[in-house]
Amino acid sequence: MPNSSSVSKFLLLAFADTRELQLLHFALFLGIYLAALLGNGLILSAVACDHRLHTPMYFFLLNLALLDMGCISTTLPKAMANSLWDTRAISYQGCAAQVLFFVFFFGSEYSILTIMSYDRYVAICKPLHYGSLVGSRACAQMAAAAWGTGFLNAVLHTANTFSLTLCQGNSVDQFFCQIPQIIKLSCSDAYLQEVELLVFSLSFVFGCFIFIVLSYVQIFRAVLRMPSEQGRHKAFSMCLPHLAVVSLFVSTGMLAYLKPASISSPSLDLVVAVLYSVVPPALNPLIYSMRNQELKDALKRLMTGDVSKSKT
User: Fold this and answer.
1) Under 8 Å between Cβ of 285 and 58
2) Rounded to an integer, what distance in angstroms lies between the CA atom of residue 220 and that of residue 289?
3) Residue 281: which residues within 8 A CB-CB, separation 6 or more?
4) Which residues pair with 259 in a beta bridge?
5) Pairwise CA distance, residues 4 & 197, whole Å
6) DSSP H helical segments within 86-190, as ranges?
7) Which of 269, 307, 287 is nearest to 12 (CA)?
């Protein structure tokens, strides 16, 4: 039986068996991938070029767009290439790189979403202290902490996972390399170390989720006390898209990693993986810009090339 030293490649789960369906999946995911790159790229350009968007909220949105582009670029290109060329193979090094970058982008994005809830809490509940609590220096430090902890977490998980001895073949029951799927191929008790690390990470995720929930409890209480209906509408418009993204992000992630083994199946796992790894990066630009007039105006100026207005 092969061990980790003799496994030179892994076989990913195919989306379809017939050639026609493979090409259909390729076209579908190509469209989703290009839409995600375009949407997030426009947000990056708008925030970077328009000084009116140089605020903490848009700074974190820029970070989110960067992470979304990285997250979807880690999984979809290889899946599309495999569908196009009718193959399932990914090299050992490629699989390790997928795990590293996906855990890095995924973890950092969740941290950024948590920070964004704090930003909204301060803006609505403590507006007089907003400049001191969420200043430019504090924003840079929080963003650096999110990216740094995400990378450290990814390195620890990747090193731990790929140090395991593998003796259960090389077929990964997912369309990209995931830690739980690699652990299933392990034949030693060393995988318990990675399970402990996963439990620690999930505890951190749960702690962030509690923080987000408590922040929004305070936000909704403050909003409902606002005398102005227009003020309440503006506050809800700012918060609800973020809350929807967080809910989708957390619920699909928890379903993927915490669902009972009794309801697990390759097809269900595939759907859940697409939901939490592909859908949010593609939809986030639309969700965050749909009711944001400032961002819409900045995008219009960007697309018409009217730079002078954005600098006035």
Assistant:
1) no
2) 22
3) 36, 40, 68, 69, 71, 72
4) none
5) 20
6) 92-125, 130-133, 136-161, 179-183
7) 269
State how far the Cα of 28 lies from the Cα of 33, in Å rounded to an integer: 9
Query: Which helix (DSSP H) or strand (DSSP E) does residue 276 occupy?
Result: helix 266-277
3-state secondary structure of 264: coil
Report yes or no: 108 and 151 within 8 Å, Cβ to Cβ. Answer: yes
Tokens standing for 311?
A: 């600098």
CB distance 298 to 310 below 8 Å: yes
Q: How far out from the chain centre does Cα 133 lie?
A: 26
Question: What are 259's two structure tokens?
Answer: 């669902």
DSSP letter string, 19-62: HHHHHHHHHHHHHHHHHHHHHHHHHHHHHHH-GGG-SHHHHHHH
E strand or H helix that includes residue 204: helix 191-224
Judge contact between 270 and 13, C-beta under 8 A.
yes
- Other Cβ atoms within 10 Å of 262 Cβ, number: 5
- Whether the Cβ atoms of residue 7 and residue 162 lie closer than 8 Å to each other: no
Question: How do the pLDDT tens digits run along the chain, 312 residues long?
Answer: 344 456 788 999 888 788 888 899 899 999 999 999 999 999 999 999 888 889 998 999 999 999 999 999 999 999 999 999 988 899 999 999 999 999 999 999 999 999 999 999 999 988 888 888 998 999 999 999 999 999 999 999 899 888 888 877 888 888 999 888 888 888 766 566 667 777 777 788 888 889 999 999 999 898 888 887 777 777 777 787 788 778 877 777 777 766 666 666 777 778 888 888 888 899 888 888 776 778 888 888 888 877 545 454
